[in-house]
Amino acid sequence: MPRSPILLPALTCMLLAGPAAAQEADPNRERLEQSPRHHEFVRIDTEAGRSVRALVVYPEVDRPVPAVVVIHENRGLTDFERGVADELAESGYVAIAPDLLSQTGPNDGDTDSFASGDAAREGIYQLPPEQVTADLDAVVAYGRSLEATTDKVAVAGFCWGGGQAFRHATDKPEVAATFVFYGTAPEKEAMKEIGSPVYGFYGGDDFRITGQVPEVKQAMEAAGKVYEPVVYEGAGHGFVRAGAMPDADEANRRAREQAWERWKELLGKL
């Protein structure tokens, strides 16, 4: 089926992600260190013969629950995505955050093997779209196979990952829902293959991405697909990450809170 290329994300996303060496400054680190939930790294085999490293975080619940796949930004799997996964588990979902740079770094390493965030970003742009799709297919299947989960698996992504979540929706119609955080859309022709509702989260001051929303909405409606975008006034690109920073401006902080509230409400309907 038609697949759009892996598009370059905004420079702001690159800057917000920061180099790997600066992870100590990430506010998610405190959350991760204090979390009472069970975190574990697993290896997920794909049909293409790859082995994808992924973080799985389990909620403290007494029943099977839906799973949510969290696709990282353009510098690989960092404390930001790990923190998002922990917050999802805190809300009652099994969260799975795959490292799509698995086995692509120096000596077949993962994100952590790259010398810097910039090097990881360069590696992201070398990923074949078909490989990303196959990796995500395997992660979704893994999420559905766990005894701790129901048959509902949602896919979410941020920045570069948001674009990949939207693109993957054209290939995986059995996904329960797709959540796009300030990511690009697939080609219009590919939208006809989307089987899940798509929920968008966009910054009002991120015109490079948000300026496309009206056209995307029109194309999705023409294809007969569910697409519900929300634009958060005054927020910039990457507001979920930026809004958690101690020095976050009010617009990003407010957008992050409102986006999380909406996301949890939508997940509650799965």
Uncertain parts: 1-12, 14-24
The percentage of residues in β strands lies in 15-25%
By oligomeric state, this entry counts as single chain
Please count the beta strands (DSSP E, at least 2 residues each).
Answer: 8
Query: Strand sequence of the main sheet, in spatial order?
Result: 1-2-4-3-5-6-7-8
Shape: globular
CATH superfamily: Alpha/Beta hydrolase fold, catalytic domain
* SSE sequence, one letter per element: HHEEEHEHHEHEEHHEHH
SS field, number of helical segments: 10
CATH topology: Rossmann fold
CATH class: Alpha Beta
Average pLDDT score? 92
The CATH architecture would be 3-Layer(aba) Sandwich
Intertermini distance: 27 Å
Number of domains: 1
Helix residue percentage: 25-40%
Q: Main β-sheet: number of strands, strand sense, barrel status? A: 8 strands, mixed
EC number: 3.1.1.45
Keywords: Hydrolase, Signal
GO molecular function, one term: carboxymethylenebutenolidase activity
Signal peptide: 1-22
Q: How would you explain this protein's 3D organization?
A:
The chain has 270 residues and is α/β, with parallel strands linked by helices. The chain has one domain (11-267): Rossmann fold. The chain contains ten helices and eight strands. It has helices at 11-17, 28-34, 79-90, 117-124, 129-145, 160-168, 207-210, 213-222, 239-242, 250-267, and strands at residues 38-45, 51-58, 65-71, 94-98, 149-158, 177-181, 198-203, 227-232. Strands 1-2-4-3-5-6-7-8 form an eight-stranded mixed β-sheet, sandwiched between helices. Helix 6 (160-168) links the parallel strand 5 and strand 6 (177-181). Helix 2 (28-34) packs across helix 3. The radius of gyration is 17 Å and the shape is globular. The chain starts with 10 loop residues before the first helix and ends with a helix. Residues 1-12 and 14-24 have low confidence and may be disordered.
